[in-house]
User: Fold these one by one.
Assistant:
Number 1:
Amino acid sequence: MDELEKTLAAVASGELSPESAAGRLKNSAVRYLGEFAALDLGRALRKGVPEVVYARGKSPSQVADICAAMLESRERVIVSAPTPEHEASIRATLPETPLRRAGRSVVIGGGEPAPSGGRIGALSAGTSDLPVLEEALAVATEMGASVLDFHDVGVAGVHRLAAPLEELRRFDPDCLIVAAGMEGALPSVVSGLVAVPVIGLPTSTGYGLGGDGTAAILGMLQTCSPGLTVVNVDNGIGAGATAALIANRAAGRTARDNGRKSSPV
């Protein structure tokens, strides 16, 4: 059942008032902002993934205006890859609104998302991969997933991986995100050791030829370890959204199955 059907069913059952339903549906509409943006305010309800503001190519004032408009109908907004000028414009436009950095993104607004029950494990090969991985985790957290992450456990010292994997097994994640630059080997190694889907997140860290992420993404795509899926170079948003969709779906299925088991025959 999609979100529209859930809303109509809630009205029919009396769980939701018509006024509340009207507000919810209003927030699902497209809002046109000047001549430069068409905000998909219903994306989170429709798809389970919030709209993220990609700052690159937008002026500081455009990004700030988009954020202000989106915050009229939600508590938080994620801005991907903002420059210092973008951040300054956001702070000037929204001086009373909390702003925190999440890797190469910023999260604007307060409060915490409702937990979905989904669980995501995350690993970075090196410290240089953290900004992109943290962006992925900001999206996953905004989608309600719980995250357990470990850093700097790449193949240059692969023995460092043993303890984090043990902790992740106890955490019992629904999927993993593994970020790596250079030759991108860590996701293949991890994928060969775990029984959950692994999302490889190649980063543009490395030397010389291929150091722009080309070697990392090609290495991940050429993996011989089944169960590894790869997003594009530095695509933390895509990695986080995909991981949370998997985790939230798994959590929802578990909740439904438990409900059926506890129901009287």
Number 2:
Amino acid sequence: MARFPENDIITLVGTAPRHDLAESTGPDLHLDALLGEPGIGDLALGYGTAAGDGRLRQEIAGQHGVGPEEVVVTVGGMHALFLLAFILCERGDEAVTTAPLFPLARNALEAVGARLSILPLAFDRGYRPDLAELRALLSSKTRLVSLASPQNPSGVALPQEMLRGILAMMEEICPAAYLLVDETYRDAAYGDDPVAPTAVTLDPRVVSIASLSKCHGAPGLRLGWATTRNPALRAQLVLGKFNTVISCSAVDEALALRLLAGRERIIGERRRHLAEGLRRTATWVQENGALVDWVPPDAGAICCIRLKPSVFDAAAVARFHEAQAGAGVRTARGSWFGEEDRVFRLGFGLLAIPELDAALAALTTALRRALPAAA
């Protein structure tokens, strides 16, 4: 019966603490931000289409430089991850992914019986993939390479020239394989920073997935999408969606369409919020520089911070996580993502700025309480 492994990341959908720095989203979008105009009340609550509402797919396609026929709307990005694992990986097929990473992405591959090769992403290398190490993991049996850009938990993005290099290696070693790029955080740039181009236009073997959960602040709308320029794969995604959920909720699709129609205003406000949250976090890291290191993110609402090994031994690391609960604060443990526990993911996007300041102050208290007596 144990088809799905346990992971304490499930606590993120439990009761939240007073200061939640474990979350990976920006502020929750409120429904009244989408209901300012008439049009939802007369929505027919029938089945939607298996591919997704045509107007919604047109909006998504316009953001990716593809046609609406190349977009499949899914029940959140996780649904797209599972469908792609199920479609592309027979039991025993090889797939390559990374560690650390969002654990449910790995779980989907394991659940369908794929043989996983793990590319380590090191904190000390800024979570940048080593292409020589990746090359050594590829074989003629590789069917899928699953990456994220920006990554979860680090917020580090992969440059397009690196993705081109990965595609060139795949063409040489496993030409039938697909490159999946989770771009859920791509739109979550900081302030006026440019948004990175999507990877889906690089090659027909690239599949991009994303959702409304992170950049748009609407995880309660279970709405994501997969974008592919391969007609056969797109047809399989539509069939896979039909055979699992039939269609998305008509209400979710209608609200998603309204959200994307106003995305410049909504995401513009959120980018300014993320930029300020990142600035406060950078200041906190600097103020506690004797105790912690970090990898600054390229985009998104998250970053990875490490308790310095020269200061915190294993017992002090354990005390830090215990002290967080006592201080009413929560971060996301590195072990949730396949990283060591002295690294934690800090989410600086969810809380209002005064609340973020209070949460960071509580985190400082936890740091100080965890220090060894000699320190």
